[in-house]
Amino acid sequence: MIDVKAETERYYESAVELLKTLVSYESVLSEPQENMPYGKNCAQCLGAARAYLEKEGFLTAEFDNHAITAAFDEREPQLGILCHLDVVPAGDGWNSDPFTLVQKGNKLIGRGAIDDKGPAAAVITAMRIIKDSGIPIRKNVRLILGSNEENGSSDMEYYRSKEDFPPMLFTPDGSFPIITIEKGMIRCKITSKLPADSSKAIISLEGGTAVNAVPEKASVCLRGFSRGDINRAAEETHLDDITFEITENGDEILIKAKGKSAHASTPQQGRNAAAAIFTLLSRLDFGNETDKIIRGICTLFPFGETDGASAGVKCGDEKSGELTLVMGLVSVKDGFLRIDIDSRIPVSRNTEDISGTLELSAAKYGLDAQVYLRSEAHCVDENSDFIHTLLEVYERVSGMKGECLAIGGGTYVHDTENGVAFGAEWDGVDNHIHGADEFITTEELKKDIEMYTETILRLCC
Question: Does 3.40.50.720 match the CATH number of domain 185-375?
């Protein structure tokens, strides 16, 4: 009907400009304000996207700054495309401003470039190409843009209280070819009160930027230890790919650990700096209850272990793989220790069983474990016409064999009945998702535009 590849080239620069606009908003979850449930920046990013879509002639709607939608017309939509405009915190280690899109070689760098603002820009551009072409749309399409995917997807709970999802639904919030199985997930906080008024104490501790990522950096401030005590503990620790930096400030000593970040669904690719800090602390003698607490943490969640074996939750199946568990956030404030755990659970197990085991395991060491987020596994039938069409489009555009995948990560369609993830990460490319210098390549952005244009044409025209 149209030369999609040629139209992609023609619209590409406008897609980059749109991405530049979206990246400029630091749409990280912050304190809610009136009519801004996820903070000012998230609301402003949604507003900018809606203004752009209205300018391009789409019919839009706003859901109290939880989400916005855009459609070709007023008919009931048959295809839904679900993207999110919120992002994880920038963190450290960037070589440029994370909220200013910059191009270096073939990389477009900025927070959200691949997760999920770049894919959103590709979908919007695909819809523009089709709308501007004048091709009649037999089935209406609804783009849904939310702003709380990174922190529980309460935006979609609100949206679903107002509207149903269309019968066909995909999100470019995963990987190609198609993700039809997503593991279950729990998030759990482990807490304990540290001894007060001790001569040897943890003054403060912090590590991680998001619960769903392996902490690249962690630090602890101690009182009552000599530089020699710390040096000996660091030498005894012997952890691969972890570096420690030790500085003195009066009678306090600051220890910083640096490892490698990774997504919580693939923690084996990272090196957990928070777990490294606890390993070092276990080599010290506090002479009080702190020693027992630290030993408990190191026993349950030892450095380098990512399958939950020591916490008693190791399991797996052929369909979806092994359970993963990561210590994502750690802190000590005012003598109160908190650790946030993220675990991804195979389809053969339910979250209640894993939660109960974690709570019992923590209790053995005097630690309090409370699960605050629970999501069962997501599984969609691979044999529908919808899935077959997506696979055909993927094979035509990519030139590669299509298949359905199972992953540990939860995508934006995890809690839907029929949704699948269709892109936008490509096999073999490390886009630094949730890390410093996150990027999408120019080739990926163009291929995404082409892919989603072809998809809408095949499904709806």
Answer: no
